[in-house]
Design a protein that fits this description.
Layout lengths: L1 E6 L2 H18 L4 E4 L6 H8 L9 E4 L1 E3 L10 H13 L6 E2 L8 H14 L5 E4 L21 E4 L2 H7 L12 E4 L2 H5 L3 E6 L5 H9 L17 E6 L18 E4 L8
Parallel strand pairs: 1-10, 1-11, 2-3, 2-6, 3-5, 6-9, 9-10
Antiparallel strand pairs: 4-8, 7-8
Amino acid sequence: MMEIFVVPDAEGTGAVAAGILAAVIRSRPDAVLGVATGGSPLPVYVALAGHGLDMSGIRGFALDEYVGLPAGHPESYAEVVRREVTERLHLVPANVFVPDGGAENPDVAARDYDRAIAKAGGIDVQILGIGHNGHLAFNEPGSALDSRTRVELLTERTRQANARYFDIPDDVPERCITQGLGTILEARQLLLVVNGADKADILREALAGPVSPECPASVLQLHPHVTVVADEAAAARLTDVPAGSLRGPGIVKVRAGAAVA
């Protein structure tokens, strides 16, 4: 099943996605959430905090982390997750996990992280964003569709896109640890949040184009339970998708400010 909710703006995507997560948390207070950073997912955490839920039993696993940043670096995903997710949602810090990008052997750390997700019983809902080149987490074009958590080399385009978070572009690390596409597909539900006209073409390719390593996000088409929440700008090119090209009920338009609960 693929559901696509289209809302006017980023605030709306946050509200709808948060409503979906809130419903999961109410039904399962010990749910395992896969948390993502980046511009599109961050409004989700702001909106979810407004639901006033007790999330002390929630466990969280981050999608990825840079390799080589010093501990406590403000743009490490460990710090972003701490600020934007753990503290905002009042999660128990010991229940929130991020790949160890400072490990002496990042390859071993990646394998250990993959095993930790499995030991936790897997991800109930994995929050996702999408990169301009179709990357999902930090799975760059060419990634195997069944790939596991591993060390990945970031493309120059991805480094340029993330340079806005650093003082100078050269400070963006060249490597990362990322959950693999195969790891992501094992989550019971995938929740993709997308904002902005600059994502319209790649969103269409991911949801209606061929499933291919050249567009890693196209693996969404292989999952049995995908929910996409996009603003109108990001969803602009989905309206011309031929009938039958999208699995499931297709596009559901949600009014401004509406939430799914």
